[in-house]
Amino acid sequence: MTVVQAGGVLGGAERWQLHLADATERLDLGLIALGAGPTAAQWEARDRPVVVLPDERSAAGLLRTQARILPHLRRIRPDVVVAHGVKAALVTAPAARSLGLPVVWVRHDASFSGRLVGLLDRITDGQVSTSSWLVEGRDPRNGLVLHPPRMPAPLTRAAARERLGVRIDEDRLLLGMGARITAYKGIDDAVRALAEPGGHGWDLAVAGLADPADPGEHARLVALADELGLADRVRFLGDVPEFARVVTAFDAVAVLTKPTPAEPWVREAFGMSALEAATGGVPVVVVPPVDDIAGDGAVVVRPGRPSEVAAALATLADDRARQRLGAAAADRSRDFPDAADAADRLVDFLAELAHRPGVGRAPTGPAVSVVTTVLDDRDAVVALLGALLPQLGPRDELVVVDGGSTDGTTSLVAGVADRDPRVRLLVEPGAGISRGRNVGIEAAAHDAVACTDAGCVPAPGWLAALRRAFDRHPDVALWTGTYSVAATRVWEHALAAVGYPVVEELARPTPLVRAYGRFLGRSFDPTMPTGRSVAFRRDAWRAAGGFPEHLATGEDVLFGRAVVAAGGRAAMVRDAEVVWAQRPTFRANLTMYRRYGEGSGDSLDRRLLGRDLARVAAYGTAVVVAARGGPRARVVAGLGAAAYLSLPVARALRSPAPLRTAALVPGVAAARDLAKAYGAVSATLRHRRARGVTAP
Question: Which of 87, 280, 387, 579 has the most CB atoms around its CB within 10 Å?
Answer without folding.
Answer: 280
